[in-house]
């Protein structure tokens, strides 16, 4: 597999379509040895893809984390304002764009598996158009962040700080949408190392930019927000240059085309439920590891279904779920062990550090289940079943999660911990429902649906034989 940027071309299937017995062997003799070989091959393939995607996710998410860390040393009010603005921006902007962009997991991934390489560029252009359009009303929402937070009953002083921070972050919205399009375009081709390079360069520059703009320029927390904007635009610019100049994308990027403006409705049909799936998930630095796993399995599933290999897609899901459980347990243990010192990274205030110490075990439990749902959601995206995922998320959070949070926090007076415990209840419901859907999936049927999606489009395509 070419993960470094080789020319897109025919690939040997991981599991031949006639080899179902090797996947479902009885574990003994020659059949058992073949099964082990196939599983080991899938593990290696997923790690080779997921490892770089995890690193890319961590580096990209680190931009907001680094900014908040710098602001935290300006004082408690500045930290509260930046944290609230970052959370508000995540829910009303970044998560929405990330979710809508993940519709490309289905379109680009299945097109690549079916060797319809030039369609990847068409799908990316369509996503760029839609996400840029969506960013315009989101920018107006960010401009009113302070007033919105005060209307929701938040502290006026903190709300004003958050509103100022959010307004200075508005240019990052448009860069982030375009960045998601380029990342998904490359990810679905397993071209991941250029993303590591661009994200790594951006993260290093961001440290220096934050230091200059926060402490040396006199801008304070506004400087941190501005640093975010600069860094996102640097990252997307690097990837845009790579896509347009690299030989590895010559088959998948053939220039701008009016075809991208056709059939926008089909993109929205997957983009909207995709956004619902992502916006209702909790987000933290630790979550970036299973998020990378989720992107990897989405790519594997969509590629294999597009190529007509349903059992390979099924195996990828089984393997990555096991990997996510192991990783989640390890991270949860480490999180509990460092709970007493983690708060000092964000603030020198003892009250803040003590509260972080109390909350981290609860958050570790949340992240463990969030990681499992993330990879299961990735499998649904690979199949193009975002609508089912959106219904599950809506039910899990609004029927189970939020009522549980209200009950625990405000009726039983458990406070902030009660809010998180309620979210954990929602996550548990979400994981159980997603696991049930995944277990009952007819992979042969999903492969047929992928074929219908690929060849049922109104846009004429050239199929590479």
Structure description:
It is a single chain. The protein is mainly alpha-helical and 465 residues long. The chain folds into 2 domains: 54-272, no CATH class; 281-450, no CATH class. It contains 17 helices and no strands.
Q: Look at the helices and sheets and give the structural class.
A: mainly alpha
Distance between the termini: 19 Å
How much of the residues is beta strand, in percent? Answer: under 5%
Could you spell the SSE succession in H and E letters? HHHHHHHHHHHHHHHHH
Q: What is the 3D form?
A: globular
Assign a percent range to the helix content.
over 70%
Instruction: Count the beta strands.
Output: 0
Number of helices: 17
Largest sheet: none
Number of domains: 2
The residue ranges in which pLDDT falls below 50 over 5 or more consecutive positions are: 1-27, 458-465
What value does the Rg take, in angstroms?
22 Å
* Average predicted confidence as pLDDT: 84
Organism: Colocasia esculenta
GO cellular component, one term: membrane
Subcellular location: Membrane
Main location: membrane
């Amino acid at each position: 597999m070419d993960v470094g940027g080789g020319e897109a071309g025919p690939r040997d299937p991981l599991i031949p379509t006639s080899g179902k017995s090797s996947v479902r062997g009885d574990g003994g003799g020659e059949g058992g040895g073949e099964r082990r070989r196939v599983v080991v091959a899938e593990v290696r393939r997923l790690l080779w893809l997921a490892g770089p995607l995890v690193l890319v996710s961590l580096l990209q998410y680190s931009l907001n984390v680094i900014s908040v860390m710098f602001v935290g040393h300006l004082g408690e009010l500045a930290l509260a304002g930046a944290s609230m603005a970052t959370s508000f921006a995540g829910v009303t902007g970044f998560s929405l764009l990330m979710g809508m962009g993940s519709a490309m997991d289905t379109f680009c991934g299945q097109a690549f598996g079916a060797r319809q390489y030039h369609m990847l560029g068409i799908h990316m252009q369509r996503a760029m158009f839609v996400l840029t359009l969506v960013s315009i009303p989101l920018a107006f929402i960010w401009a009113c962040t302070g007033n919105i937070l005060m209307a929701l009953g938040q502290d006026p002083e903190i709300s004003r700080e958050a509103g100022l921070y959010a307004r200075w972050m508005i240019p990052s919205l448009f860069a982030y949408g375009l960045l998601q399009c380029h990342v998904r375009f490359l990810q679905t081709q397993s071209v991941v190392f250029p993303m590591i390079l661009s994200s790594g360069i951006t993260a290093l520059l961001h440290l220096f930019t934050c230091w200059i703009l926060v402490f040396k320029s006199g801008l304070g927390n506004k400087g941190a927000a501005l640093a975010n904007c600069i860094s996102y635009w640097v990252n997307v610019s690097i990837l845009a240059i790579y896509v347009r100049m690299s030989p590895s994308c010559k088959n998948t990027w053939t220039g701008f085309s009016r075809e991208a403006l056709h059939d926008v409705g089909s993109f929205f049909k997957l983009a909207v439920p995709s956004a619902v799936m992502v916006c209702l998930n909790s987000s933290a630095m630790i979550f970036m590891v299973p998020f990378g796993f989720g992107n990897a399995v989405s790519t594997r599933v969509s590629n294999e279904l597009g190529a007509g290999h349903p059992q390979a897609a099924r195996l990828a899901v089984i393997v990555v779920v096991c990997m996510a459980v192991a990783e989640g347990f390890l991270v949860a243990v480490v999180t509990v062990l460092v709970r007493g010192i983690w708060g000092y990274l964000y603030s020198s205030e003892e009250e803040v550090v003590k509260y972080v110490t109390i909350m981290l075990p609860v958050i570790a439990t949340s992240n463990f289940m969030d990681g499992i749902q993330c990879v299961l959601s990735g499998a649904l995206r690979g199949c193009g079943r975002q609508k089912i995922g959106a219904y599950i998320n809506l039910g899990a959070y609004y029927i189970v999660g939020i009522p549980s949070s209200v009950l625990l926090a405000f009726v039983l007076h458990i406070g902030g911990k009660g809010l998180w415990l309620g979210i954990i209840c929602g996550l548990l419901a979400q994981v159980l429902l997603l696991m049930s859907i995944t277990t009952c999936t007819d992979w042969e049927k999903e492969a047929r649906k992928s074929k219908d999606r690929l060849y049922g489009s109104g846009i004429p395509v050239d199929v590479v034989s």
